[in-house]
Amino acid sequence: MSGDPDQLSYADVLVRIGELAEALTRSPDKEVAEPVGELLDWVDAFHRDGIGRLVEMIREWRGEIFLEAVARDELAGTLLGAYGLGEGTGTGDQAADAVDAAIDDVRPMIESHGGSIEVEDVTDGVVKVRLSGTCDGCPSSSATLTYGVQTALVEHWPNFRRLEVVDPAAEADPAKAGLTCGIPSTIPDTLATTGSQAPASQSGAPQSVMVHIRGHEGQ
Length: 219
Description:
10% strand; disordered C terminus
């Protein structure tokens, strides 16, 4: 597909962007392909999180009717749909199936240590989960969320934006100080014991800076 962008529908423009991105990232010249690929990933992540937060703020002001109107707009609706945001998107069967698949990947690891995890809500790329059993109040539960649950969600759902915990323990349970919750074996021991560097929101509030792209989670 090629031609004057003014002669294409907005959906066709997205297709054309994808074609150009694929051509550039598959260039045999790695000095071109690699930085172009990373640039596109960062722009995508920045747009996804920024537009997602805008939608969240609109919802907080009871703006569902406004979002329904946006979804019907040819340009704005196409943009929200591309990121799985807004009314009628981000909470459908495809999103639910992707989230369920991600949770199923990590559930055995969590349950093997006496913990439990359940999905409470999936809206606009934000996944809210509830921890119970040994995971609730465990000092290493944040590492479980970051390197287990969040990593699985990133892998399974392209529109995933943020992970939040519903009603987390106010503080670590001293009785669980000696426990090691479910954490992938690839995580360094220092993180497994401290549960540090966890981007998952424990309070339910959006974080100030948490833009990440696939393949760069550890940076």
